[in-house]
Amino acid sequence: MSEHRVFPVPATWAAKAWADSARYEAMYRRSVEDPEGFWGEQGKRLDWIKPYTHVKDVSFASQDLHIRWFYDGTLNACSNCLDRHLATRRDQRAIIWEGDDPSVERTLTYGELHIEVCKFANVLKTLGVKRGDRVTIYMPMIPEIAVAMLACARIGAIHSVVFGGFSPEALANRIQDCDSGILITADEGVRGGRTIPLKASADKAMEKCPKVDRCVVVKRTGGKVDWRDGRDHWYEDLMSRSSTECAPEEMNAEDPLYILYTSGSTGKPKGVVHTTGGYLTYVTLTHQYVFDYHDGDIYWCTADVGWVTGHSYIIYGPLANGATTVMFEGMPNYPDSSRYWQVCDKHQVRIIYTAPTAIRALMRDGDAPVKKTSRQSLRLLGTVGEPINPAAWLWYYEVVGEQRCPVVDTWWQTETGGIMIAPLPGAMTLKPGAATRPFFGIRPALVDEDGHVIEGAGAGSLCMLDSWPGQMRYVYGDPDRMRQTYFDQFEGKYYTGDGCYRDADGDYWITGRIDDVINVSGHRLGTAEVESALVLHPNVAEAAVVGYPHTLKGQGIYAYVTLKVGIKPSDALRQELTEFVRKEIGPIANPDVIQWAPSLPKTRSGKIMRRILRKIAAGDYENLGDVSTLADPRVVEDLVNERKAL
Ligand code: WTA
Question: Domain AMP-dependent synthetase/ligase: where (predicted)?
Fold first, then answer.
């Protein structure tokens, strides 16, 4: 991990970027000293139907928790992404869609996207969707996912996008949690040359969700699907009869725009709610400054729309800024490991935003696949989702960007709505592995175990002292969970769940989750979720899951499983449990290691000592710490011996 080189801002960047270091400092100071003034101005980036007169009404006090921004203003998120650009950008490309197969692509101009969205908004209305209704979207990476989301926003319906890699079970839970009565999906998805049976999974989920009485299916492959007349509708049929006129609904700034489920330390994923005015202000401002986005730049975020990165930085941020956003259906190494850079050349991408896990996988395949492409269009390289190890950072910087392009390592979360800590490329000295400085309006604090704020250099739990407009507002259906999850740890502060180190220059280095959340290839998973899945298996008595360092995935899933009395451990059972978890949650939750544990290390009060399990999983047997509080310290010895034998 040690890399001490630093990369100062090149003079050309400082001159051309939206912010050089003096401007960053001035804007940052203003944003934290006078948040009302700063955000009051920034909110004007959007088109408001009724302008706000109040900017901020926030309390982080746990007994009086409330967060409102621009709360007497009204607007429509969809018309901010589309209608307001029509006068100047009707024929500009809004979305460049690059198919899984390199010979397949589609573009939609702002004018075309506007028509599709209006038509689908009318389809939703015809199907009875009203303002405030929850619409579940379970789709592959095709332009229709953007159409569906924006159509919801247009009529004031709340979308809940569920990543296409989630299992029917996971989908059903999310549909039930937000009490959604309509599902938008596709016949099949396509990735890496293989098809993914989305409608079949949706069918299984709907069996458990009788309330879903409308299912709209986009035809992506034409593959065979089961059909239930009356419930299932082809997207294409509905669209062909739909009108292109649809007035946007006037929404309050604090009306929910969407729900996005994310994993926490408990078994049940949380429906994070983002609202309209503050969220859109925040994602457009961060998209402009962090990526130094200028008019005409072709911008590509490789994330899946099913995650927050896709919501904020494929759809809402770029479109509200009038950008051309690339949407990619495929994966980094299909048909071969040159694919990303070929896409950059083909579409003249200026800004690419991807995940460390993709960089590490490509790095493993060597420099040749990169070097056979030009990449001359590239100007900036972004990363998100997990800590980036300096070796991957340097490879990205030196091999991909040929030392021309700043690497912006952006730290944020589903809950934060947008980027929180990241270098502004014209302003900050880059350090491989550091997310560097807070964005405008962001007041990070490092807190020690006793809740004291650490000043100067040091490490602690990363918290936020004040709100920002993109912050989540509440957990859907569970008003108190916001406070319990994020504000009960340290009074008056938002608790992120990440550990962080601040160096003597004031730069922030995120060290990873300090709660029971793990980050597998940039996908966020709760260890409790995987445990809940494992114990559903009839042969499993108990399970404890931890993350462990994994060279490609960042973190891998390590499961300790105690079998029921009389059940014999076997490789076949191990395989069966692996399949079982994949079926319950989805392939992203594939356990990398299952270790049989005749018993688990517990305190006398019965609490599993995860700290010890993490160390054993990491092979770090020497520093297990104090095991004297365990009910039976010999358990640890047995686990270590098992682990060594694996
Ligand atoms: C981790 C993704 C280090 C972190 C936008 C956070 C990162 C969690 C970084 C949120 C980064 C994200 N450096 N860690 N640049 N970006 N993380 O909700 O642990 O899917 O809490 O949001 O990913 O994951 P989520």
Answer: 83-464
